[in-house]
Amino acid sequence: FRTTDGKVQAVRGINFDLNKGETLAIVGESGSGKSVTSKAILGILAGNSIIEDGEIIYDGKNLLRISEDEFHAIRGDKIAMIFQDPMACLNPRKKVSDIIGQGLDVHNLYSTPQERQDKIYRIMEKIGLAREHANRYPHQFSGGQRQRIGIARALIMEPKLVIADEPI
What we know:
With 168 residues, the protein is an alpha+beta fold. The chain is built from six helices and six strands; from the N terminus they run E-E-H-E-E-H-E-H-H-H-H-E. The chain has helices at 34-42, 68-74, 86-89, 96-106, 113-127, 143-155, and strands spanning 2-3, 6-7, 57-58, 61-62, 79-82, 161-164. The protein starts with a strand and ends with a strand.
């Protein structure tokens, strides 16, 4: 990261492969770069140009060399993230059904409004929230329930890769 004093190297020398069906846990002390690594894979660091060296290969493509439009097609649909702080990543002005269904809307993954709603209800049931919770706002839930909303938002897309940044 660029600072007023120069640069700070957040992550150095990380190398791993993850194959279909595998789970990988990155463990380290606070500040060791776990979240930075996750956000780099998802392409959501403040300007991916801060990554100066290396490759992030996903499905044969170097994610550091693709356009934002290409990333947009992958993000959410193929790769999804469950963020560490649910309140920071849930729009307080949106109802839970719209938060969970946002990826469906962006990637046009339903044919009718009823199909959209059915998908939302199914994933809500899987995470332990009732249908009547769909019209509530994030502040009306406990921390654990908000985290489950973030999990539902990621899983509804049926991504190939789920990145979970301290999800529990």
